[in-house]
Amino acid sequence: MVIVTILNMANDSLIPNKFWRDHPDLEVRDFYGVINDKTRKYLELAGPEDHPIEQVAKFLYQLDYQHR
């Protein structure tokens, strides 16, 4: 049961571009480069470019509340 909870939590976080795509350290990019479902859905909705935090919040609202 704990493992299920951890897996669900892992898919509820968003991995920022600065970790999985733009980080200068290859090990960091490799670690965060395993994109979770939420990040994948976010990229489908928002695209790969960086957005202001207010826009990110709107995209996350859409993902979390409108696309249940």
Word description of this protein:
The chain has 68 residues and is mostly helical. It has one domain. Helix content is 65%, strand content 0%. The protein contains five helices and no strands. Helix 4 packs across helix 5. The radius of gyration is 13 Å and the shape is globular. It starts with a helix and ends with a helix. The N terminus is likely disordered.
Helix content: 55-70%
Poorly predicted regions are 1-7
Give the distance, in angstroms, between the N- and C-terminal Cα atoms.
23 Å
Please provide the count of β strands: 0
| Rg calculated over all Cα atoms | 13 Å
Q: Class by helix and strand content?
A: mainly alpha
**Helices and strands, in N-to-C order?**
HHHHH
Give a short account of the largest sheet: none
Number of helical segments?
5
Strand content: under 5%
Work out the count of structural domains. Answer: 1
Shape: globular
Mean pLDDT over all positions: 82
